[in-house]
Amino acid sequence: MLFVNRLVHTLVPGSESEPVDTSCRTNAGFAASLICIGLNITLCLAKGIAGLLAGSVSLIADAFNNLSDASSNIVSLLGFRLASRPADEGHPYGHGRYEYLAGLFVAVLVCAVGINLILESVTKIIKPSPTAYTFISLAALATSMLVKLWMAAFNRTLGNRIDSETLIATAQDSKNDVITSGSVLAAALISQATGFDLDGWAGLGVGIFICISGMGLVRNAISPLLGQAPDPKLVQAIRDKIMSYPQVLGTHDLMVHDYGPGRQFASAHVEMPGEGDAFEHHEILDTIEHDIKRQMGIGITLHCDPIATTGDDLRGWVKRGVMQIDPALSIHDLHEHDGFVSFDLVRPDGFDISDEELLELVTRIVHERRPDVSCVVTFDSGFSSPERPAEQL
Q1: What is the pTM of this model?
Q2: What 3-state DSSP class applies to 183?
Q3: The CATH number of 4-226 is which of 3.10.20.740, 1.10.940.10, 3.40.50.300, 1.20.1510.10?
Q4: Three-state secondary-structure class, residue 258
Q5: Residue 1 pLDDT > 70, yes or no?
Q6: Three-state DSSP class for 107?
Q7: What is the pLDDT of residues 7-40, one digit of tens each?
Q8: Measured between alpha carbons, how far is 92 from 118 in angstroms, rounded to an integer?
Q9: Strand-strand pairing, 340-346 and 330-337
Q10: Could you list the residue ranges that cross the membrane (predicted)?
């Protein structure tokens, strides 16, 4: 859309594949909020005056909607500013989740606007009053739709570029405004042509739509605050990166913690040959940690799991055996010691075979190679994604 990509590129230089610097991200969000505040206040004044002249409850409600949008933009601005505060003793991972709270506030405000519009519209339906649309009021609606369409495209494009749920919520709110103004405009044209006043009914329909949309925004805003699962693409990218280094046999127990956009931390276990040099393994893991931080912007801590690579490959045998039970199953940390074989068995949540049955099945697999040992199995669930841990069989 007109100037959107150019403006976004001006605010956030560089290619889309490059991680966005925290200060650049904050400045871009701050600038977007200021732009939206100015546009929303202008639209509020224009539609408010037009609504008063026409006596249209839906047009006046639409004007107040723009005023609430300006308020939510102010909250977004504060959210970006507070989220940019550096880490301190009480918040060692920073204050990035302020932005999620700002997004939640915007979502709740969207719901409040929808509820208010429903109440106003029901009143208009029960106690109808004449609506006199003028050319000025119709022009205000049409202009508002164009401006809001641009704002929706701008906020969504920038929100996706800097990974901001707040701006994405603002974009959805602007899209709702386009639908709101379009419904009011359609009702006005029909009323002018037929003489039947649809103003209240149009407002009611739009109010219901806004409430439904707002609830979706609330769910999206709450999810990262509750600890949602990381993006499977990100999880796979981290695993692929770890597996690309020499002497890495596998990786598991990957955990990704989100403390706000651009503030992700992770940890993982990395399987390496137990017969290798510990100092060399430590150096490899340090290199992986530094590379992931530099290239992906994620602070990660890696733990080395020594794996026996000599002998008859009991580990590979058990891995293949549990995959025959179900491809979603996997094992890691297999060790033999003093007549015991111990390992962790990873199965997805909601797996339809009980732990007791699984223990019996995997014990049979182990006993095919080690008939005299006892099995110690720890059942585990993946924290990052339902995908199998990366490994070399």
Answers
A1: 0.66
A2: helix
A3: 1.20.1510.10
A4: strand
A5: no
A6: helix
A7: 888 888 877 767 677 778 888 888 998 999 999 8
A8: 44
A9: antiparallel
A10: 100-119, 131-151, 200-218
